[in-house]
């Protein structure tokens, strides 16, 4: 969940759920008022060396439902947002109590997509009916044996009828496309093997363009790749462009492209690098704006993004 605050900073909260109201005009954006409406910090049994830092993982929401993944906790936390002044933990979906962390949680309408980050379980992505968030119903799964998915995912997105997966792996360059229009019978569409030196950390799709973030490897900087995915069912994605951010002076530290996000009009792409610092927290620094294919423009101010767990 990302909130833009002013012109110089963005904060992505993956820890306790915060529901805020932002007000203010474009002219007075630096003076925007942010008011905390409500807050919830569910208790759970945590484990691992970074349990105080890595309690939760990614969060997503749609309508009156929010879902939140886990790292040193387990399962997925499902929230009822019907009353924004009183967030309610509707249920805690935990199919393998204490042993399955779900690094990804996405909700589209009344359907939840919960992606495990635990390779050993090979549980992949579980698709849930969240019509009643207090009683989630399992509709189907995408695993290596069902839909030819990954055993675990690091990042994923839902694009129309398609689940788009990046592996929970430090070496996998493949992006998977699976048709999940029938959750009980997911259909593998295709693998996209990118030319990335390291692995693909994340993707996002705007219209018919897919933007993939490469994490780099050793002294090889990660790249951002732009693909045309107009005819994903019948045609392999077409690589339109790729580029390297060379603004960082330390290749080993600045090589890792964490993620990107395009403006709604499609004119600008915001690219972030991941850097490990600040007591183990993972910070992603925005390195400027990219317009079109490879025409890079620099912002006057540095932008920072909070990511609450290293590598997430």
How is this structure best summarized?
With 312 residues, this protein is an all-beta fold. It is built from one helix and 25 strands.
Describe this structure in words.
The protein is mostly beta strands. The chain folds into 2 domains: 1-193, Methylamine Dehydrogenase, Chain H; 198-312. The protein has 1 helix and 25 strands. Strands 21, 22, 23, 24 and 25 form a 5-stranded antiparallel β-sheet that branches. The chain has a 4-stranded antiparallel β-sheet with strand order 5-6-7-8, with no helix packed on it. Strand 13 (153-159) and strand 14 (162-167) form a beta hairpin. The two termini are 14 Å apart.
Please describe the structure with a list of short key phrases separated by commas or semicolons:
single chain, 312 residues, mainly beta, Methylamine Dehydrogenase, Chain H, 5-stranded antiparallel beta sheet, 4-stranded antiparallel beta sheet, 1 helix, globular
| First-residue to last-residue Cα separation | 14 Å
* Helix percentage range: under 10%
Q: Which CATH architecture of the largest domain is right?
A: 7 Propeller
* Proportion of beta-strand residues: over 45%
Judging from the principal axes of the Cα atoms, what is the shape? globular
CATH topology of the largest domain: Methylamine Dehydrogenase, Chain H
Oligomer: single chain
Helix and strand content put the structural class at: mainly beta
Stretches with pLDDT under 50, minimum 5 residues? 1-28, 278-312
The domain tally reads 2
Individual helix count: 1
Number of strands: 25
H-E string: EEEEEEEEEEEEEEEEEEEEHEEEEE
Q: What would you report as the Rg, rounded to the nearest angstrom?
A: 19 Å
Largest sheet: 5 strands, antiparallel
């Amino acid at each position: 969940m990302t909130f833009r605050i002013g012109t110089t900073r963005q904060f992505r909260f993956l820890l306790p759920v915060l529901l805020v109201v932002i007000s203010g005009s474009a002219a007075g954006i630096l003076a925007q008022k942010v008011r905390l409406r409500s807050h919830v910090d569910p208790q759970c049994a945590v484990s691992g060396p970074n349990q105080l830092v890595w309690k939760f993982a990614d969060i997503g929401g749609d309508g009156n439902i929010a879902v939140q993944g886990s790292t040193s906790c387990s399962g997925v936390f499902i929230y009822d947002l019907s009353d924004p002044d009183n967030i309610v933990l509707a249920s805690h979906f935990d199919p393998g109590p204490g042993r399955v962390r779900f690094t990804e949680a996405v909700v589209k309408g009344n359907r939840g997509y919960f992606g495990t980050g635990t390779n050993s379980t090979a549980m992949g992505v579980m698709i849930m009916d969240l019509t009643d968030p207090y009683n989630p119903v399992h509709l189907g799964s995408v695993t290596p044996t069902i839909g030819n998915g990954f055993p675990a995912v690091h990042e994923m997105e839902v694009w129309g009828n398609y689940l788009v997966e990046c592996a929970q792996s430090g070496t996998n360059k493949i992006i998977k496309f699976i048709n999940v229009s029938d959750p009980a019978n997911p259909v593998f569409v295709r693998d996209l093997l990118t030319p990335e030196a390291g692995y693909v950390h994340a993707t996002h799709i705007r219209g018919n363009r897919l933007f993939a973030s490469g994490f780099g490897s050793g002294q090889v900087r990660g790249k951002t790749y732009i693909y045309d995915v107009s005819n994903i069912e019948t045609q392999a994605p077409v690589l339109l462009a790729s580029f390297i951010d060379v603004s960082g002076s330390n290749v080993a530290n600045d090589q890792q492209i964490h993620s990107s996000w395009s403006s709604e009009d499609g004119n600008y792409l915001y690219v972030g690098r991941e850097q490990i610092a600040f007591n183990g927290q993972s910070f992603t620094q925005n390195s400027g704006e990219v317009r079109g294919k490879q025409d890079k423009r620099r912002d006057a101010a540095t932008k920072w993004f909070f990511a609450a767990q290293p590598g997430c």
